[in-house]
Amino acid sequence: MRTSTALETKAPRRWQRLTWPERLARSVFYIVAMAALVWSLKKIEVIPEFLYDAPEQTADLFQRMWPFDWAFYPKAVQAALIETLHIATLGTVLSLLIAVPLAVLAARNITHSRVLNSAAQLIFVSTRSVNSLIWALLFVAVFGPGALAGVLSIACRSIGFVGKLFCEALEEAAPGPIEALTACGAPATLVLAKGYWPQVQPSFWSLALLRWDINIRESAVLGLVGAGGIGVALDGAMNNLYWDQVGLILAVIFVVVMVAEVITTAIRSRIL
């Protein structure tokens, strides 16, 4: 009798998705995030008057861009566009030539040296953490304005991206073929060519095409800091307030980016 009474008076158990420490941590996170948002809005000093007439100013800017100044295309845009494609292509090729050997050094299943692994990873992090515009400013200061600074900035920015992902592809390679070649006494070059390369080849071409696509977009703005390409024409048109030329250049950049996306997607579907 006492047992049944105790069971009847016992409070029913209630299921909760989060424990109280988890709920407390989530509440603290929300409070800190909201405080950071309010502090950021206060520090950037947004001017309300500029926000009120932003739609009107945007509409006026687009009206000035249309119709495009088509006569400006053969004068300055076409040559600058071709130079942009050259910068993106050469920068991508140069980054691949540097990133692939570094990826081999960074792969722990190939290079069994902590020092070399750490040194290669340090290069990947340092090159990837600096924006291409910052690299362009540095190389413009060293080599002067022009396409060379653009090629080197694109290459340095791409080394960390390509090298890190290609290193991960090497480390994820199946060990079976590598162990078989090693057991047969194959040299290291043959192990890389016949054991690793067939497995990572799709990843390599996918990374190369993806990075080339990204570099076309990045090289389009490097001319704003003097690193050559179509950005030089864009900067000159904006400084002179020739908005019909600015609209033409922006439209050309948009079309080129879309075409590059279609080309890379088509190539990847065929080789992968």
Describe the structure in brief.
The chain is mainly α and about 270 residues long.
Characterise the protein shown here.
α4 packs across α12 and α6 (114-129) packs across α8 (147-171). The protein is 80% helix and 0% strand. It has helices spanning 2-9, 20-43, 48-52, 54-65, 72-106, 114-129, 132-143, 147-171, 175-183, 188-219, 230-239, 243-271. It has twelve helices and no strands. The model has no long low-confidence stretch (mean pLDDT 81). The chain has a single domain (68-271), classed as MetI-like (MetI-like fold). The chain has 272 residues and is mainly alpha-helical. The termini are far apart.
Secondary-structure blueprint:
Blueprint: H1 2-9, H2 20-43, H3 48-52, H4 54-65, H5 72-106, H6 114-129, H7 132-143, H8 147-171, H9 175-183, H10 188-219, H11 230-239, H12 243-271
Helix pairs in contact: 4-12, 5-6, 5-8, 5-10, 5-11, 5-12, 6-8, 7-8, 8-10, 9-10, 10-12, 11-12
CA radius of gyration: 28 Å
Low-confidence stretches: none
The proportion of residues in beta strands is: under 5%
State the shape. Answer: extended
Number of strands: 0
**H/E series:** HHHHHHHHHHHH
CATH topology term: MetI-like fold
Tell me the CATH superfamily: MetI-like
- DSSP summary: helix tally: 12
By CATH, the architecture is named Orthogonal Bundle
- Biggest sheet descriptor: none
- Class by helix and strand content? mainly alpha
- Identify the CATH class: Mainly Alpha
- Report the end-to-end length measured between terminal Cα atoms: 74 Å
* Integer average pLDDT: 81
Number of domains in the coordinates? Answer: 1
Helical content band:
over 70%
